[in-house]
Small ribosomal subunit biogenesis GTPase RsgA (Fusibacter paucivorans), 296 residues
Amino acid sequence: MINGTIYKGIGGFYYVMVDGMLYECKARGKFKNINMTPTVGDFVQINIVDEAEKTGVIETILPRKSILLRPNVSNVDQAIIVFALKNPEPNMMLLDKMILLAENANLDVVLCFNKCDIDDEGRFDTLRSIYNNAGYDILRTSPKTGEGIVSLKAILNNKISVFSGPSGVGKSSLLNAIENGFKLQTGDLSHKIKRGKHTTRHSELLPLKSGGTVVDTPGFTSLSLHEIPLDRLSSLFPEFESISAACQFDNCKHLSEPNCAVKAAVEAGEIHASRYEAYQYIYHEIETLGRKYKKW
Ligand SMILES: Nc1nc2c(ncn2[C@@H]2O[C@H](COP(=O)(O)OP(=O)(O)OP(=O)(O)O)[C@@H](O)[C@H]2O)c(=O)[nH]1
Ligand SMILES: [Zn+2]
């Protein structure tokens, strides 16, 4: 058996990449019996049926290191969260929510602040200070001037990445700067109805010539915060994690409890106020969503 990765699935066939070559594979019936569906991104073991025709059979699906639901892709390593420094103006709450969803899906997070060529208000420095303090990798990019493209390439190399970020921030332009002709599919496409039939568009993995693999659809386009358990929320803010050990209560929510080390760190400027405000806001939002979902 040889190891490969499923790059796409169409009508019961799976296209498995092995050393730069795609094999068209069927999956063994046993997967159905154990209720397992091969998924794009899965690391699999295949037996080759015909080397000349490049066909094979998937025999084993290896344990998944992460599972994204929208788009449905396994083993994504990192989310490249792209926000423009201007046009459109960065919405910090949206940024914190996208970071949280990526954290909740166990992805590494890279923040890519784009359109730095038009950052005439110096927003990058403010954002860098907030998110460096939170421990995130940060890029300053512009497909227009080429700034940061080499660094972005290096970050994508050897990894499976999903791009996220609001419309118009330059996700496609960034990928195009790395590889001419590369275009991210827009999220709506998966809901289009073709020829009277419901055709769900499955995501694909696309290999970059410069190294690395990118999911062809943006991630976290719908912000499904109710998936995040409330008791996990503060652990998804990396800069709260170590400090919260010093809170008086083990189960401190860092809201109105006495002797809360997180709140003290906010007052001392060690945790950025905007991150704590996002935490408070999102906490209450998930709480309200939770009540609504229970009623259904
Ligand atoms: N000034 C400037 N404009 C940019 C830059 N990057 C992208 N743009 C422009 O921003 C607009 C949106 O870029 P896209 O790459 O389509 O953005 P997107 O994030 O893929 O957008 P969606 O497909 O809607 O999700 C285009 O008009 C780009 O030319 C940049 O670095 N500087
Ligand atoms: Zn606390």
In short: Residues 114-115, 117-118, 142-144, 165, 167-173, 184, 186 surround guanosine-5'-triphosphate (ligand 1) (CB under 6 Å).
